[in-house]
Description:
By secondary structure, the chain is of the alpha+beta class. The chain is 12% helix and 25% strand. It has helices at residues 9-15, 20-28, and strands spanning 43-46, 57-60, 63-67, 77-81, 92-93, 99-100, 107-108, 114-116, 128-131, 134-137.
Amino acid sequence: MLTQESITRKDFLRSMGLGGSALLAVLASCKNASDVVLPVGGITVDLSTKLLTINSYVYSNGVIIARTALGNTANSFVAVAQACTHAGTTVVFQSSGKFYCPNHGAEFNTSGAVTQGPATKSLKKYMVAVSGTILTIS
């Protein structure tokens, strides 16, 4: 005669090697653009030390900020949510001038619009302003 044993969810996850910290790390890597909360006053970047070359980019507070042209004017930079709208993976800025998701291959233009799926929703775009060597994202 066969008997059935019960197992708790905690024991199951432990047996699969997914202890609490590992599971939280996996879940934390799934970001969402709606999770982005900009600090009061926005995000600031010192252009005398960062984003010095075209196609360079930085991440800050869930936003990816990229330099797309020479000069310290607002038109030389773009800022969008760093989380791909398909599965939340962090996007990168490529030298071809697009944001690319290395997880499933989605691509976005500098306005955040989808140019290649599987994503179907645009990245949230943020306002960019420059004053001297200080770039502000709001």
